[in-house]
Automatic annotation (TrEMBL):
Keywords for the protein's UniProt record, in alphabetical order: Membrane, Transmembrane, Transmembrane helix
Superkingdom assignment: Eukaryota
Keyword Secreted: no
Species of the source: Arachis hypogaea
Record GO cellular component, one term: endoplasmic reticulum
Cited InterPro entries: 6-blade_b-propeller_TolB-like (IPR011042), Sensory_adhesion_molecule (IPR053224)
Keyword Isomerase: no
Transmembrane segments: 351-369
Protein's UniProt name: SMP-30/Gluconolactonase/LRE-like region domain-containing protein
Length: 383
């Protein structure tokens, strides 16, 4: 079968139509992707009467969030759609004990939960481990100021946040005593670090959060911990083996710092319900020094107490209304988990988008030039 031969006029029309179509496609793609990058953050609203969660964790195997509770002695799973399911309920714990910091130990399929009794309840500080599949409690380790694993009834302890290493060792901050407990995988507790570095910096005693020292904690795979201190805004790097602590030099104090989360690219996120901010930090020297390269204003009324890194390295902040619950409100049932993004990092994504579009247009105009040359040569032969 004989193929039709295109005239130069047909080619002129084809090139013009292709040019217009290609430019429109490039523009639509650029606008669409840019809009997607700058779109509204994902907000998960979930309902559970009087839950008032303070701690948040991400369970990568279960593909859901875990939250604690101010009064319920429960750990609940929250799906991406906001469906709440009570995963663990432990009525054997003292009544009205608060489930604070949470950390998922994926290798051992368990969740670690920090337990603390708020005043005027009798003192109680402990770390509990629960199997994620059965909900069975694996151990309950009492945390004392003496660090011997026995409850001493001391007021000088507020067990607050927890992180876990690859061997199953847990590290718990004491916000009142300014030290760090270490709890091994069998539930045996000891004091890892009671460094003088933790008490070298001035505290504003007029601030309502002045009582809260060491708070958020994260384990870094190189064998050390990053810990923030609420009442000074400082960050410390702590050796996970011998407890040696060093001050991380920052370009800005993290006032009221609460939880800490670590992204796979090494960026650290710190949230503060006092300042109502989420800080993005990075370090080029293994956390001897670090810079706050971006910060986001958060909803102060929602009282953001925790931040985690979920699927795809996305960051999420918990609005658990904890302060409202502590002040005695018993009528709330709606809470939220919100995705947060760094505007400066998004700007970088947009720059690369436009670079790619520009490169594509360069290749297209090169093709267009070659096609016009072809048409001109055909015109010369025909004429």
């Amino acid at each position: 079968m004989t193929l039709p031969i295109l005239s130069s006029n047909h080619l002129h029309s084809f090139i013009s139509a292709a040019t217009t179509t290609t430019i429109l496609l490039f523009l639509l793609s650029a606008v669409g992707i840019s809009t997607s990058l700058a779109g509204n953050n994902h907000v998960i609203t979930f309902r559970s009467p009087n839950l008032f969660p303070e701690g948040l964790a991400w369970d990568s195997k279960g593909q859901h969030f875990l939250v604690g509770s101010l009064r319920h002695r429960t750990i609940s799973a929250v799906s991406d759609a906001g469906v709440v399911e009570t995963l663990i309920s432990d009525p054997s714990l003292p009544e009205n004990v608060t489930v604070l910091g949470l950390s998922v130990d994926s290798r051992n399929n368990r969740v670690l939960a920090v337990l603390h009794a708020l005043k005027p309840l009798p003192p109680f500080n402990a770390l509990a481990a629960y199997d994620l599949s059965s909900g069975q409690r694996l151990f309950l380790s009492h945390l004392s100021s003496a660090g011997n694993g026995e409850s001493d009834g001391s007021d000088e302890a507020i067990a607050n946040d927890v992180t876990v290493d690859f061997k199953g060792n847990a590290y718990v901050t004491n916000s009142a005593g300014n030290f760090i407990w270490k709890v091994n995988d069998k539930g045996e507790a000891s004091i890892l670090s009671n460094s003088r570095r933790f008490t070298e910096h001035p505290v504003d005693r007029e601030a309502w959060y002045s009582f809260c020292g060491l708070n958020g904690i994260a384990y870094v795979s190189n064998g050390y911990l990053l810990v923030v201190q609420s009442n000074t805004g400082k960050m410390f790097k702590v050796d996970a083996e011998d407890g040696t602590a060093r001050l991380v030099l920052l370009n800005d104090d993290l006032i009221g710092a609460d939880a800490v989360a670590l992204r796979s690219d090494g960026v650290v996120l710190v949230v503060s319900p006092v300042a109502g901010k989420l800080w993005f930090l990075k370090s080029n020297d293994g956390w001897g020094e670090a810079v706050v390269f971006d910060q986001i204003d958060l909803d102060l009324e929602g009282y953001p107490t925790s931040v985690v890194v979920g699927e795809g390295d996305r960051a999420y902040v918990l609005y658990g209304r904890m302060k409202e619950g502590v002040l005695g409100n018993s009528e709330r049932e709606s809470f939220a988990i919100e995705e947060v993004r760094s505007p400066k990092e998004s700007e970088g994504e947009n720059v690369w988008l436009y670079v790619m579009v520009g490169v594509g247009l360069v290749f297209f105009w090169g093709w267009r030039f070659q096609m016009r040359q072809l048409v001109n040569n055909m015109d010369k032969k025909i004429n």
